[in-house]
């Protein structure tokens, strides 16, 4: 017998198989392979921001450029206060991954930022953004640049990178699919994206 799934992300494949084997040992496949498109997911900076930074001698495609002790990225991006919470940005208190105690504990184990977790939840400014270590100032959150995703995509590893690389990036989630696809066109942001999707291919 064969098991067929229409979408299978390599980044989580091993965990999916292990979980399925634990729940359904008699039915689970011993291994999984893909035969169609290979998907990849990342944090993306878009052309206008990359070009503006390049003109100032900053390479946004180099991860060390995001370390806030060396680089201030705020001139190239919108401010956190430009967004309307609940319309553009989802409330953190409604997001299952940010309120999961298991993921909060894993975040502390990887980054060491225990003070970024409150009541077993990853803390958010204005119930909207997780402020990175380079801009964790609730009085002046606009020291952060906005990074947007949707539905928790790339949330655990995304937030871990924001903190591990000592960045001035704030993690937020779009309030809807429509907001997710329009925010990079209406604001200057970093965004989650994956291939072979085409939503932002013209940018």
Strand numbers in spatial order across the main sheet: 1-7-5-6-4
Number of helices: 5
Mean pLDDT: 85
Number of strands: 7
Order of helices and strands: HEHHEEEEHEHE
Structural class: alpha/beta
- The radius of gyration over CA amounts to 18 Å
- Helix % is 25-40%
Distance between the termini: 44 Å
| Main beta-sheet annotation | 5 strands, mixed
Task: Please render the helix and strand layout as text.
Blueprint: H1 10-23, E1 40-44, H2 47-55, H3 101-111, E2 117-118, E3 121-122, E4 130-131, E5 145-149, H4 155-164, E6 169-173, H5 177-186, E7 190-195
Parallel strand pairs: 5-6, 5-7
Antiparallel strand pairs: 1-7, 2-3, 4-6
Helix pairs in contact: 3-4
Q: What report would you give on this structure?
A:
The chain has 203 residues and is α/β, with parallel strands linked by helices. 27% of the residues lie in helices and 13% in strands. It has five helices and seven strands. The protein has helices spanning 10-23, 47-55, 101-111, 155-164, 177-186, and strands at residues 40-44, 117-118, 121-122, 130-131, 145-149, 169-173, 190-195. It has a five-stranded mixed beta sheet with strand order 1-7-5-6-4, with helices on both faces. The chain has a two-stranded antiparallel sheet with strand order 2-3. Strand 5, helix 4 and strand 6 (169-173) form a beta-alpha-beta unit. Helix 3 packs parallel to helix 4 (155-164). The termini are far apart. The mean pLDDT is 85.
